[in-house]
Design brief:
Chain lengths: ~325, ~290, ~500
């Protein structure tokens, strides 16, 4: 995969005659940059790629006591076990739906909130609200879920009362499969929208103020300034985040879903991550969970390169 | 800076402002309410927590939850350790990330795409707990604080975002510095980094929070109890809500709700306090101002 | 922010020097006699004991070896265990919490000492079990890999609102039919006399898995469905394939459809189990006896004068098919001895001798109560704790008690109860235990570890646990329930049954 990428055309530059010559010339020309990159490269080699050599346990029946080399090779058995699971399609569908909620609803809301915050004139209010909305990020899912249980307690919870009047239902929303996704989305939005704005606010802080002043002189209204200056200036950030998000599409955040699932909503709640937890981690089956991790990585890579390619077609910066 | 904005505000614009203030105030309240409940609960008696469903002000205020956590030397030591590790770790991680992001932002650097592809690969695939543990062990980092900092030193996600910010800086600034005889390191230090304060502040926050909240690394890498960080001490209390039936069979009563709430407060407040310091840099990051200065 | 770069770098360098100070355990791996005993154990207390802990010193003296305990937060004990096994710095003794895949595979690959003969030899009198059945249950297919940590065999009980029973003139239940009638009365007959229809009978929380002490498991056992597995003429069969199990489910479904159970039974967080009982919403809890004590304590806070009117405790209920009690496994994990730390028979003997010493009455008092004359004193043969040293006492019971095995009997001082009511409640617990143990239905397959179950047991159990709740909720009917059992069979269940029966035949 990586070699295929490296073969993509590089920006044109003067080509010296032979390869060693070119290498030497580059090394001299870019010596400072290469030196700056060295610590990072070392980091990736040591802590990211060296352990990957251990990922061969995906093809073995790994028993910690025997060590990686002492464990027996089983080839693609673990991959097969995962892919041939009768529930595979259901798990895939559930996972993609949760990912879609996050990508198409939660993510845009983050941008909207950042833009609204940016339009706040009252500095003190702006700072206060910024600080407040990012607090929920620090509450663990355990706490968020228990607060949800409190708010949606059947018969007594304030939100349950409100919603049951609104929709004329007396169902236990925490157990009802139809309510599972709305609840998950609500929690997602509540917990991380504020936190997500931080990165956009940093991008917005970099916008050239003179552009606004010039636009005002040209008679541009509020909305026009947002559309023509603010949004284009954070577009690169949006695109990059979007690309990186798609790479995580099969990772749904295990803890939230695990804590929110129960016997009555499991048909819609089960995702890859919860399934692997039961099948793998809880049982100490590391080979199996590593195999699933590899599979998800493969899908993630394809998606990242795909969306990156798309972004470039639409003249966006992309990540490469 | 906003005088010109106000002068040219239309009536619709003013209506929007009012709505926006109302809406965001609401959003802010919505975000903080549950936390206030946690805060109130941390000062309430166990009986009140079990009998009142939701409250923002306890009828009877008690500090017993805090006393039982704070009374121990272990806690105070773990707290101090965590502050130091977070501070040092954030500097190390942010430094390494910025150093690597800068060369990668140069479109003409040979091999850049290969490196980026490898970085992206590590973002979607991590080798897992045991292989990483074995590497940390082989490097002799077990039971050192570096084990909490180095294995997660560069977050690929942060690296890519910072790289993209660097890419958006006007190239003329660097060119002029280079004409003045600056090398790349000097350009990075005197031109690029000062211009990137907002994004660096953002990722300083991300890294700091990452180290602050990390419990898996101390769990796996530190056997020596005296080196434990705050999360190792707190984890026990917060996670106990999901005790399985089998664990309950030990007849140890689960920790009181009040203590759980107090733990959440203690773990959250320091990071909240750090935010305004970083927020300051967000506003200061106006490009033109720095260029002119 | 990067202007003054030198300072943080210097700071980092200083920190590295100060912090990298090594902590390597004395290089083991030789066959030399052990000088210290490293034990890895979970803890429940707020903070773990320190190296200079007085209990550590006292126990080291008893054991004749310098004790060094690696405390691990209980919640993440499993992850830590697996990484420790992967490394080469393995403790001499490890608390193993359950027979999960990684433990069983490691043990079968020879990673732990097989203690079966050593423990049976009688060389270590304090490690000879007083309940052979429990020791076998803790084994892996008959091989004992650890010294089990004994727990009460009878814990299941029914806890009711005594004041509600009194208000309605009802007696405590003796049969499952009584329980259903009380649940109905608690729902429909206004047990709190406030004139409002705001109460229900049974309080059930959400529960994952099967055969792990849920209220549903208790009712099924009372109905005669057995305990996870049944021996049907020498053949093992899962409890949920029996008619009695189905009968019990119908009983549970009737309770739910009648509205006699809390409406959020499928989602209620078990951590909030006490709340409806305390707040007068629900009146019946089927759970461990110690919950009655917890509840009585909370009532005491709420109503210090007449707190003794609220809690009624009864044991097993007679079902329509006979009298059966649901026991626990009788143990909670075990202390296993890895071969990579303890390399030869001599060292093993040293470790077992130390463990033997750690199971004397003196050691039991240290582990369960603390230091006599410091945080507790003995009055009339009972331990009385010093309230001023509560934090220390909590640490002892939350950490050191985890090292206790007590398999040859628990001889530490009984704890003095605060009031007459507490005393009576405690006595009642003991009486109920003595009574119910005679009817205990043990899991005949407790010792058996089937390979298929170790890899996919959690998923298989979830199929049945979900189907059970869906059936009770009325989401699926009898056909749906049978379909779920079929799914269980085809997903590996049949294989589990086959493997279990092979192992069962080998063992007996």
């Amino acid at each position: 995969m990586t070699t295929a990428l490296a073969a993509d055309p590089e920006p044109p530059r003067p080509r010296p005659r032979s390869r060693p010559q070119r290498l030497r010339r580059d090394a001299v020309r870019y010596r400072w940059l290469l030196l700056l990159m060295l610590p990072g490269a070392l980091y990736f080699a040591l802590f990211r790629f060296w352990p990957m050599y251990g990922a061969r346990i995906a093809f073995k029946n790994y028993i910690p006591f025997l060590g990686i080399d002492g464990s027996e090779w089983v080839g693609l058995d673990h991959f097969q076990a995962f892919l041939s699971n009768p529930d595979f399609t259901r798990l895939l569908a559930n996972t993609l739906i949760v990912a879609a909620l996050s990508l198409f609803i939660a993510f845009p809301l983050t941008i909207v909130l950042a833009l609204l915050l940016n339009e706040l004139r009252l500095q003190i209010l702006k700072r206060t609200v910024q600080t407040l909305v990012y607090i929920p990020h620090f509450l663990s899912w355990t706490v968020v879920v228990s607060i949800t249980a409190l708010l949606f307690a059947i018969g007594t919870g304030p939100l349950w009362t409100f919603l049951s009047d609104l929709f004329g239902t007396d169902a236990n929303m925490l157990a009802d499969p139809d309510w599972f996704r709305p609840l998950i989305l609500m929690q997602m939005v509540w917990k991380d929208t504020g936190w997500g704005t931080i990165i956009f606010l940093a991008a917005l802080a970099g916008v050239d103020q003179e552009q606004y002043e010039a636009a005002v002189i040209d008679g541009a209204g509020r909305w026009q300034r947002v559309r023509n200056i603010t949004i284009p200036s954070i577009m690169p950030t949006i695109v990059v985040l979007l690309i990186l998000h798609t790479g995580q599409i099969l990772n749904t955040g295990f803890e939230q879903i695990y804590l929110m699932s129960n016997s009555l909503n499991r048909t819609v709640a089960d995702v890859f991550d919860t399934y692997v937890y039961f099948a793998g981690i809880e049982q100490g089956a590391y080979s199996y969970s590593t195999a699933v991790g590899l599979f998800k990585a493969l899908v993630g890579l394809v998606l990242i390169f795909g969306t990156n390619w798309l972004a470039k077609r639409f003249n966006q910066q992309g990540i490469f | 800076m906003s005088t010109s904005h106000q002068r040219f505000n239309t009536r619709a614009g003013r209506a929007f402002d009012v709505l926006n203030v109302a809406l965001l105030t609401g959003v802010g309240l919505l975000a903080i309410l549950p936390f206030l409940y946690v805060l109130a609960g941390s000062f309430a008696t166990e009986l009140e927590i079990t009998t009142r469903p939701f409250f923002l002000w306890p009828e009877e205020i008690t500090t017993s939850s805090y006393r039982s956590i704070l009374s121990s030397d272990v806690f105070v030591r773990a707290f101090a350790t965590t502050v130091v590790v977070t501070f040092v770790g954030t500097l190390v991680q942010l430094g390494l990330t910025a150093l690597m992001a800068y060369p990668l932002a140069k479109a003409d650097l040979p091999g850049r795409r290969t490196v980026l592809a490898l970085v992206v690969f590590t973002m979607v695939f991590s080798a897992g707990m045991i292989p990483t543990f074995l590497v940390v062990k082989d490097l002799g980092l077990l039971d050192t604080y570096w084990a909490l900092i180095l294995p997660m030193a560069i977050n690929p996600f942060s690296l890519i975002i910072i790289k993209n910010f660097f890419q958006q800086l006007p190239p003329e600034l660097e060119e002029s510095a280079k004409i003045d005889g600056a090398n790349e390191l000097q350009v990075l230090r005197h031109v690029v980094l000062p211009l990137s304060k907002p994004v660096l502040a953002t990722f300083a926050l991300f890294y700091a929070v990452g180290i602050w909240n990390d419990y898996l690394s101390p769990l796996l890498y530190l056997s020596d109890t005296s080196k434990w960080t705050l999360q190792m001490i707190l984890r026990q209390v917060t996670a106990a809500a999901s005790l399985s039936a089998d664990e309950m069979a030990t007849d140890v009563p689960p920790p009181a709700q009040g203590i759980k709430f107090a733990v959440v407060v203690i773990a959250t407040i320091p990071v909240l306090l750090a935010y305004p310091f970083l927020q300051k840099h967000f506003a200061k990051g106006m490009l033109i101002g720095s260029v002119k200065g | 922010m990067f202007e003054s770069k030198r300072i943080p770098l210097a700071l980092a360098a200083a920190a590295s020097l100060a912090l990298t100070a090594a902590c390597s355990d004395g290089g083991e791996g030789s066959g030399e006699p052990l000088e210290s005993l490293t034990i890895m154990a979970p803890f429940f207390s707020a903070v773990p004991p320190e190296e200079d802990d007085p209990i550590d010193e006292a126990l080291s003296e008893l054991a004749g070896l310098d004790l060094s305990v690696q405390w691990v937060p209980n919640t993440d004990y499993g992850s830590k265990t697996n990484t420790v096994l992967a490394g080469d710095d393995i403790p001499d003794v490890m608390v193993i919490q359950g027979k999960d895949q990684s433990f069983v595979q490691t043990a079968e690959a020879g990673g732990f000492w097989d203690l079966t003969d050593h423990l049976a030899s009688g060389d270590y009198p304090n490690l000879v079990t007083e309940n052979a059945q429990v020791q076998e249950a803790s084994s892996v297919n008959g091989k004992v890999y650890g010294v089990y940590r004994a727990r009460d065999v009878i814990r299941t009980s029914v806890i009711l609102r005594q004041d509600w029973l009194d208000n309605l003139g009802l007696a405590a239940p003796e049969t499952t039919a009584d329980l259903a009638e009380i649940a109905r009365a608690f729902t429909e007959d206004d047990p709190d006399g406030n004139g409002q229809d705001d109460t229900y009978g049974l309080i059930n929380p959400a529960w994952s898995g099967i055969g792990n002490g849920s209220p549903y498991d208790a009712i099924e056992t009372w109905y005669g469905a057995g305990n996870l597995w049944r021996d049907e003429g020498g053949e093992l069969a899962p409890a949920f394939t029996s008619d009695e199990w189905l009968q019990a489910l119908q009983y549970e479904r009737d309770l739910v459809s009648g509205g006699y159970v809390n409406p959020d039974y499928a989602t209620m967080d078990p951590a909030t189990w006490n709340e409806p009982f305390l707040n007068g919403k629900g009146g019946i809890i089927i759970d461990v006896q110690s919950r009655a004590v917890e509840l009585a304590k909370l009532f005491k806070e709420q109503d210090p004068e007449t707190y003794d009117r609220y809690v009624a405790l009864v044991g097993q209920l007679d079902g329509p098919n006979g009298t059966y009690a649901l026991p626990t496994a009788g143990y909670s994990g075990f202390l296993a001895i890895p071969r990579s730390g303890v390399q030869n028979e001599d060292q093993l003997e040293q470790v077992l001798t130390a463990l033997n010493e750690l199971n004397t009455t003196e050691a039991q008092n240290l582990m369960n109560h603390g230091i006599e004359g410091d945080n507790y004193s003995v009055v009339d043969g009972e331990a009385v704790f010093d309230p001023a040293k509560q934090d220390f006492t909590d640490q002892v019971t939350g950490a050191w008690a985890q090292l206790g095995t007590n398999l040859a009997g628990y001889n530490a001082y009984p704890i003095q109860q605060e009031t007459e009511f507490d005393q009576a409640l405690n006595q009642l617990r003991l009486d109920l235990q003595a009574e119910d143990v005679a009817n205990a239905v043990y899991n005949p397959a407790a010792a058996l570890v089937s390979p298929t179950y170790t890899t996919s047991g959690a998923q298989l159990d979830t199929i049945i646990a979900d189907a059970r709740i869906q059936y009770i909720a009325g989401q699926i009917d009898d056909a749906g329930l049978q379909a779920a059992i079929e799914t269980w069979r085809s997903s590996g269940g049949d294989q589990v049954v086959e493997e279990m029966n092979d192992l069962y035949a080998d063992l007996n």
